[in-house]
Each structure stands twice: as structure tokens, then as C-alpha cells.
DUF1697 domain-containing protein (Actinacidiphila oryziradicis), 180 residues
Amino acid sequence: MTRYVVLLRGINVGPTTRLPMKELRGMLEAMGGEGVRTHLQSGNALFDHPPAPPRWLAVDLEQRIAAGLGLTIPCIVREASDLRRVIDRNPCDLTDIDPARFLVTFLSGAVDAEKLKDLAPASFAPDGFQPGEREIYVHCPAGVQKTKLSHAFWEKRLGLTATARNWNTVTKLAALAEAE
């Protein structure tokens, strides 16, 4: 069995995107997931499943959510071990950074450096970003609600599905994934 992490985008942030975690757990179990656990109410889950391409699992879950609840919810699924890579390869010094204002924007595919080369970092100040392999590390000192570097910005720029988690959530999910 392989442990996977599910990151749903935009659930439980308004009245039209309600997805109870009990229903999410049920959908993951119906997909063959075992040991399903959720973290917070914002669409974070861990589960064990026979090895499968994460994209297939994401599409399966998206289809189940659409069929069961009538919601179009983008899903990103990663092998849980990938969270350790994201943490270990963080290019930013977090010494004086509030982890609630430091985001990892997870992407459905690899970062295309060509699509980033014309971005002028100064135009986003005080925010900053560093590309990773399949994620963008974003510092939002004025708060995540005020940043121009939102998941929507990255989706438009890169043509990929994107969802962001703050550093506290990323490290907690990694700890939960590694605990068993």
C-alpha cells in the first residue's frame, strides 16, 4: 500500500462548496482507500491505497464529488512521501517568517520555468515566491488574503490546477503521514 495526501481546493469556504469531512472519508474509502484521516475542514486527507498514479486518484475523487454532491472541486493527490521532499527542498529561510503567512502552492504538474522568466519579483512586493519542482513557495508578509500570488494567479500563469496550504498545515500533514 502507498500513502497518499489529498488536497482539495476551495471547499468549506462559502455556502456553495460544503463538503463534510465524513463524506470525503466515505468517498476515499469507496475508492479503495484504507486508514483514511482528514485534517482540518479545508479538504486535507491522508489514505492508504494500492499503488496508482496520483492523477488517476485525483480524477476519480473529482468525479465522485461531482456525482455525489454536484460540486466541481479540483483535487491534487500526492504520495505522502512527496510532502517530505517539499519540506526538505524549501528554498526559503523561515527564521523570521510567520508560518501562517508562508504558503506552498501545490500544482497538478511540473513548474515550467519559461512561464516564470518574465515575472518581476519587485512587482509583487512585499510578497515573494520561489519555484519548486511541482510547487511554488510563497511568502505573504501582509497576509494570505492580500497576496497577488494566489492559486488563481498560478493557475492562469502556469495552466495547471493549484491549491495552497500554509506551512503549518504542510508540516502537520507530513507529520501525520509519517506517524504510522
Strands lie at 2-8, 34-39, 44-49, 75-79, 102-107, 128-131, 135-139, 162-166. Residues 139 and 174 are 20 Å apart (CA to CA). The first helix runs from residue 21 to 30.
